[in-house]
Amino acid sequence: MEAEGSGFPEMKAMLFGKVLFNYLTLRVLVSKAVALSLGVGAGLPLGKEGPNVHLAACIARVINPSFFEKRVQSSHGAHGAGGSGVGSAVSKLLLAACAVGVGASFSAPIGGVIFALELMLPQTYDAFAYWGCFTAGVVGAITYAVERTLTTGGESLLPLISSNVLPGEGSDTDYPILRLAIDIALGILCGLGGGIWVRCHAYTAGVLKRWRLRESQPTTAVGNQEPLLGESAPRRGCCACLKRCLVGMLGGRWRDLALVAAVTALNTVLASSLPLLGGKPQPLLISTIFDKTLLFSGHDTWVLPWAGVTGTICLCFLMKWTMTILALSSAIPAGVVAPTMIIGGLLGRVFGHVLLPDWLVEMLLTKEGQPPTGMQKGAFMARCAIVGASAFCAAVCRAFAMAITVFEVLALPNSVLPLCSSALAAIFVANKVSLPFFDANLATRNLGGIPAITFTDKAIEPVMKVMRVVDLSECLPQVVTLRHLLHVISTGDHDFFPIVRPLDWDTSNQGLLEGSMTRKQAERLLKTLDPHAATPDREIDLMNPEYQAPPDGGEPLVEGSPVRVSPDCTVKDVYLLMKVAESDGVVYVTDRGILQGTITLSTLMSREV
Fold first, then answer.
1. What stretches pass through the bilayer (predicted)?
2. Which pTM value belongs to this model?
């Protein structure tokens, strides 16, 4: 079940501080690789970029599992109770996995690195992580190129993105500003379409997931456990037992299998009825959509007589829109980049054929009084498809790196401004419509705080809006009896207890923050000072230097300098502070030294933000 879906949302969650070791096992590696191959081989509109990123992370951990565990449990990675954060070395490996997964998929190491860095914002990385990503991306792209040459001679296996449009072809015009405005308009259309597509997918995936799980409400996580997409409630009865026995040999659940079978059958039927799509793997289909001779070479072989060129392209666009949503909502490994590029390419074709009048195309392509040739018009439509593919995918993923990746692979000099301007317009419009695809996935689970920090206004809100207000009764006085210490940790359900000095002159039940203790440290202190509960009324000063720096060199029992921020500090800055400081997963909010509240990493990573 951990092998389902893209893998990008889980990678993003791990880079933000929630390690999901059950997603980085050898079993997940093998399952995802085999299932992805079968899904792509069956002709389903599935991308390989997200799964490749997940596979790269699995390989990194499988090579040396102890490396991950040791670094995550180290002091620099011990953010949150139980050491649930990501250590510095582990986070660099995971980021490199993102870069090499995308870079190898597109043979575009630069675009892969920027794509990885964009998706994982906001983070703080040093030059080592930056160059590590580039090294991984370049080595991965070289390895793929060498393996492709040795196994296929470099001809049979097409790159994911290719086009026969030549530099300058279909772009030379006497009206460059008007041409740029058309590209921006296409970007706006792709941004609106990308945002709507994400919302359609979220709704469809929710409906199908509730049907698969036989639940009336969306699944929610229990405690800190990550909900599994394929998890189902136990069934009882003879019929249920018979069903489980029948599908047990296939290693799946009957509803998941039925959904995948139905989507595959429907996709096969629809694709076979549209010759432009039928029987083409995704690299060949993208190459066909980006082909400048599409309207001339083999015109009669893919156009439906009763629909014409425009109608056929519109039908292909609607078919890919619908089937991609259904395929990505099924219980199989699936990436989103390549399928949405195909949708965007078809949308660009629709834009050029339907929304742009012939006289406008003639005027744009007229150069020095010379009317355009048919091949120039074909190249113009292919460029519309290229810009549409880049902009639509950028709108879905909310990643400007898609424009860089397309330019890096196709190397069309005159396409820099169209790709960049349309991608920016698409991202701007899509932000008004929906969350990014990967963040929308996280928002429906118990990791809603990650998209809130990344793509909503919550990131710049003051921390006082999301902090937990602390009452003095929940705190430990600086001078406390063992009985009162035991009472506070027994009645409180928190893992962190601030040490305060009450203000004698103040009647508002406030105190100055002096230090902090975890529940584990408080229990150790009680066991050390009074193991048999013989002296419960013994008074101790929690700020005693021996508790902060034990003479025997042991682990401190009290944190004398807890991390603190002011109430107007932004949520994003608090998260970044937790990433770089050894804060044990808690930051205290103080005003002139007076304790106001607390915020934990688990709060930032949950729906509470």
1. 20-44, 93-116, 128-146, 177-200, 257-277, 302-319, 331-356, 380-404, 416-438
2. 0.81
